[in-house]
Every structure is written in C-alpha cells, then in structure tokens.
Amino acid sequence: MTLVRCADASRTFGRGDQAVVAVHGCTCEVEDGARVAIMGSSGSGKSTLLHLMAGLELPTGGAVTWPDLGDSPVERSRDIAVVFQGPSLLPALTVAENVALAAVLTGTDEAEAGERAVVAMESVGVAGLADQLADTLSGGQSQRVAIARALALRPRLLLADEPTGQLDAETGGHVLDVLIAAAEESGAALVVTTHDAAVARRLAEHWQMNDGRLVVPTREGVA
C-alpha cells in the first residue's frame, strides 16, 4: 500500500528574481512498512521534500498524494507524524502534556490521549520524566520526547528530519535506536533525512538529494 506519492513534485519559494527552487520535480513513493533514508547536504532540499510528504508544504508544481491515508488533511493528520530537527516542544508544558498534545489536537479524546502518552513515553524510555517541564530537558531527552509525541498519534507514516543532527554521536545513536525500535514496534513506515552515512546505513533504502533533485535507486540499483 502506498502511503505517500510524489509525482514530479516541486517547491519554489519566492517569485521572480528572488525565486528559489528547493525541490525540482521529485518522483517517489513510500510504501507501508518502508525504511528510507534521504541523504543530502545542508540546503539540498531534503527537509523541504519531507515537508511535502507530510503535507506541511504544498507543491508549486506536480502533485503529492496520499493514496492509502485518506483524502482530507484532517484524516492525514492522524496518520502522519513528524519529528523535527530543532526544538519542537512547548517549554511551559510538562513532558506528559507535550506527548499527549498532538493526539488531542487531531481529535483524540483527552483521556485516551493521556493513555497513549503513557505508553509512548514508556516505549522510548522517558516515563520517568513525565512531570518535568520541557525546558529542563537535555537535547537527547527532548528528541526522545518528540519521538514519543509522534508515536502517541499512532501514525502509519513517521517522518524524521535530521533527528540526530544537533546531537553528539553517542546521544544521536541512542535517539536513532529509539526511533527505529519505535517504528518497528508500531509498524509505521519510517523516512529519515540525514547527512550522516552512519545513520543512513541503519535503514534499508537510501535516496539521495542533490541541489533539490532526488535520485531514487531502482531495485536493480540503477537510478
């Protein structure tokens, strides 16, 4: 089953002489259960492509569709979760409140969202931090909580934008372990953008972004 399909999708920011093409005509599909690394240097367009897959950005050319995730943005918001590169927690809320928030905002009953939050926090090893304010956490703890928040949605598609990019190698390795294990346990497809070959090696498929252009190898290894 195809969760997201990009058909010659492009994204341009600005107009006229100020226009910047971040993504040029990308064509790709993410299937149920996929494990994909999108590799590329800073500014290559990989984060923009991830945002197109999430529906956070709209294509300015081509199309992005979600064949097996429903027709409306509201339906898709329950099935797609994003772990961002930078800080994304609300500092004035506790860890537990942060983890439950996305589920609540997508229509889950508060009691159920709270129960999902407990399960998600336990699965990534942050249950002991439940009552701490988010602004007291370390970088690694914050990313684990962000992963828990994504899992509380119980998504079918988990998108992670450079989840280890701002962490040291050891902490980043632990966060990646948690992310992959969580995707395995939940059955979600996982797409990770990264500039780190060591991160990419942990995932089955390797796509490459260069200057906004995507290369997706075929099964025979031919682009």
UniProtKB/TrEMBL annotation:
The keyword RNA-binding does not apply. Keywords: ATP-binding, Nucleotide-binding. SUPFAM superfamilies: P-loop containing nucleoside triphosphate hydrolases. The keyword Zinc does not apply. InterPro entries: AAA+_ATPase, ABC_transporter-like_ATP-bd, ABC_transporter-like_CS, ABC_transpr_LolD-like, P-loop_NTPase. It comes from the Bacteria. GO terms for cellular component: plasma membrane. Residues 4-222 form the ABC transporter domain. It holds the Pfam family ABC_tran. GO terms for molecular function: ATP binding; ATP hydrolysis activity; transmembrane transporter activity. This is ATP-binding cassette domain-containing protein.
